[in-house]
Amino acid sequence: MTDENEENDDEEAWLQLRPVEPLPSQCCGSGCSPCVFDLYHRELARWEAARASKDRSLLNGEEPQSCPSRLSPETFLAFRISAMDRLTEDTYRVRFALPRNSQLGLRPGQHLILRGKVDDLEIQRAYTPISPANAEGYFEVLIKHGELLMLASGTGLAPMVPVLQSITDNAEDETFVTLVGCFKTFEGIYLKTFLQEQARFWNVRTFFVLSQENSLEKLPWSYREKTRFGRLAQDLIEELVSSCRRKPFALVCGSAEFTKDMARCLLCAGLAEDSYFLF
Asked: Contact 176/141 with Cβ under 8 angstroms?
């Protein structure tokens, strides 16, 4: 029984060490090389090889002798944030500590990929350090976050498209976007493919409000968690505003009645008149 228990414990230990496949939202969509999915497949191949050869060093948390100690496209390394300065309302300079006064080792113009959690959401982004190339013991990056809430009804989605596209096309733009599209029915939602592609970006959320639907079972699985029925009203507006990381700037487009209702709801949710724009 002892050998069998040891085998079971061994199997459990291997399963716990198996790399976790990233969510689509963890890919920034900027064409990074390597992408988070490239790293996952490399880590998975390493795990499978170690398991097949019963390499106990991986189980024991030991690094193989060939593991690089400096930056590598194959592996993420942990760095401690030693300082953070707020430069503007939405711009921060973040300093990371390097061990033993070492240097980052990047050439001018090269970038690195940072991965971490923001409000329980794991994200990955490419940054070019702003610190001197010969800086010892630290490196710095500039991080800018804005917050945009888009409220569109029917064809009011049209003017939102180029704004959203300009954000996701720009790898340096880190604006968080929450897009709410209001339609009568699921079939009436246009640009579905475009909206699904945009929702794969780490900084974009999409929601839908359907006024003439009442059954989630009739919707595709990918839409059920992000669809509400009825009308876009005060309670949902307050929920959306409170779920933003900071007070957002809102863009509203739709019928005259829709824009009037949304302006009233946004005011009640705590957004001043200079915090939203009505198309």
From this structure: no
